[in-house]
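Narrative summary of target 7.
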Amino acid sequence: MPLPTAPLTVAAVQAQPTPGDVAGNARAAARLVGRAAGARVVVLPELFLPAYHPPTLGADPDGTDVAADPDGRVDDARLDPLRAAARDGGTAVVIGAAVRHPDRRRTISSLVVDPAGTVTAAYDKQQLWRGERELFDAGRRGATLLVDRWRFGLGICYDGCFPEHGRAAAGDGAHGYLCPSGYLAGSAHRRDLYYPARALDNTMFVVFANAVGGVDPWRFNGGAAVYDPEGRPLARGADSGEDVLVATLDPAVLADTRAAHTMLLDRLPDGGAARTTLVA
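Modeled conformation, tokenized:
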């Protein structure tokens, strides 16, 4: 897969949505997109539109969910401010939502709002975490977002804990990995390991957005970041407070890293399936 030829500016957001307030959170998202002026791609946290708050998501699915048509299009007036922000900024916005599909599946999804204001349920979370399985159905396939010749694999939070998920994106030619997330307070060690590791594993950029704030047990720990293809932070948020982290992805860095670290070319197709067992 050819590498992109021009740099691309992206933004990772950490912010605190209000449980159940899709319209208000869409307005907040529009404001945050405005803060990322100049970014071509803006990534907001997992389930940002309804907020990651299982009691509310369980009690009021009609109020928290958005509906997708058979083609994945979402037409919901509550998202109009976000559509306007994407159009005004020429921005592709990736934002977390609870999505109701025509076949009655309910998924944790990433919506993509394109610069024309079209909203698509682009990717459904494949790896559900703990109690999410009681409220949501797992996604069935991966997805890649194309922006200005850059290819981005889409993941959501727990997906990024599985090396094979990021590797599947890289296998599809991804130059980056976009991960809206919701990491709880107390998980900073894992948060700060998984996403730099996915970057280095696959020599690709990673854009990690995360929720922040809230009340225990649903209190989130920020740390949004953009990582280079060796897993080094280009931009990094604190563990608390709203922030918009803007960074520019350089195709020369991608090319140089992949020339120096050739894991994608050298990996065994079967992961070394044949094994020997020794007894000591």
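The mean pLDDT is 97.
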